[in-house]
């Protein structure tokens, strides 16, 4: 289904194709990993031809993703739980990337939540893992498993925005958001994205 902020969640015919990543395989998520909507089959092929290795994780996004933070303090927010998996084939690729001094670029906050959940659960980055996660990444947070983040512009008072602020710093993120508003970037699921390195 569409998020409630797009036509009140009412789908039209084109949404069945456009609100889906080209690489999704497992059913179970209630929303698309929206940073991944920017990737086409041709773009992925082009990146791979340039030497970029890709690997997949799974997070069955729940409706709680759209629930704004309502607690008076960020630390008091109760995070929803979702099923996630970091497959062994992905863990192997990540370990190889690291051993060759490569950079791990997470595409979307969903990928970050899987990588960080796996690192916390196994005690080590890049170990295969699956299970429920209710990780709430917010400032201050010490990231264990990634070097860069590609993400859309998120709703205010969202757990997703808190995660981005934890990664890049609130001041830098808010500056980027102000510039995005001035430049009339599109926000949310069908919006523009940014790469934070």
* Portion of residues within helices: 25-40%
The CATH superfamily appears as QueA-like
- Extract low-pLDDT stretches: none
Indicate how many domains the architecture comprises.
1
Broad CATH class: Alpha Beta
- Tally of separate helices: 6
Strand order across the biggest sheet? 1-2-4
Ends: how far apart? 31 Å
Beta content comes to 5-15%
Outline, from the CA principal axes? globular
Which secondary-structure class do the elements indicate?
alpha+beta
CATH architecture identity: 3-Layer(aba) Sandwich
Total DSSP E strands: 6
| Element string (H = helix, E = strand) | HHEEHEHEEHHE
CATH topology: QueA-like
**Mean residue pLDDT:** 87
Quick description:
This protein is α+β, with helices and mostly antiparallel strands and 197 residues long. Helices cover 31% and strands 12% of the residues. The protein has one domain: 3-Layer(aba) Sandwich (QueA-like), CATH 3.40.1780.10.
Task: Give a written overview of the molecule.
Helices cover 31% and strands 12% of the residues. By secondary structure, the protein is α+β, with helices and mostly antiparallel strands. The protein has a single domain, classed as 3-Layer(aba) Sandwich (QueA-like). It has a 3-stranded antiparallel sheet. Helix 5 (159-168) packs across helix 6 (170-182). It is globular.
Structure keywords:
197 residues, alpha+beta, QueA-like, three-stranded antiparallel sheet, 6 strands
Give the topology:
Elements: H1 15-18, H2 41-49, E1 58-59, E2 82-86, H3 88-99, E3 105-107, H4 109-122, E4 129-133, E5 148-152, H5 159-168, H6 170-182, E6 193-196
Parallel strand pairs: 3-5
Antiparallel strand pairs: 1-2, 2-4, 5-6
Helix pairs in contact: 5-6
